């Protein structure tokens, strides 16, 4: 009983709630701490043992755990009764078209990209979406078709779509075994989520546990100078994600799905997931040619995560208000329920 009371009592210092109040805070605050330590006291975490394994070298293992949990969520509690059309539109408009354009740019101008924005950064930022934000927004203003389209964001989470695009286009030399290794945790998660819903429920908490530690470990590979120089580019990319990928999804909602006043929900897809900050490192692990871009791409991605987390729901709400669709919990029409 005493133990239960201790767990339910108030926190002396509410670190977790504070991080949750900051847009993308679960990713951003640990990342910044990792950057600061790497910039001013890098030797602190280079002492070996469990300390270095978790806080310095643990990013890839934590990414793998996050990918496994993502796979379990697709076939588990969040899949719901979403229409396949809604999920398809979100996936195509938010991820597949923007990623294809990034690849086309890479083929035309090379991996260096433009204005200090590498193709690796474009793929990481454009090709990952914030599923938690989508669930929260769609749950308030949409219906089961919208919340179920979370499956689309689950598919684009992690590095394997970026690897597939880079490998298929020839821009990256991704070994087949490395691609398989990136997908195996996801496939195992799909299987676990399909056969055991209790595991799915347990794994729902994995992002809250994993993302802060993963982001900190990624931050220890980034210098403060890179963050400062990449900040403006990250802001530009974040605004571009909301306008371009959110706008494409809005058009899909309006003209393909015929959602009328509710089409503004599509702008809520114009985000970058917090775990996208780890995509550059994962890609470079498979193809070392991308190593020179990892530091700047990770910093730009972190900035874009923050910008999109703030801007996307504001834009989506404004568009819904202008069209008269800013009402909560609309029922699913009988024809599509």
Automatic annotation (TrEMBL):
Position of the signal peptide: none
UniProt keyword annotations, A-Z: Cell membrane, Membrane, Sugar transport, Symport, Transmembrane, Transmembrane helix, Transport
Spans traversing the lipid bilayer: 21-41, 53-72, 84-109, 115-137, 149-168, 174-195, 207-228, 234-253, 265-286, 298-320
KW Cell inner membrane (keyword) present: no
UniProt-listed InterPro entries: 2keto-3dGluconate_permease
One Pfam family in the UniProt entry: KdgT
Domain of life according to the entry: Bacteria
Membership in a protein family: Belongs to the KdgT transporter family.
Name assigned to this protein: 2-keto-3-deoxygluconate permease
Organism: Paracoccus benzoatiresistens
Organism phylogeny: Bacteria, Pseudomonadati, Pseudomonadota, Alphaproteobacteria, Rhodobacterales
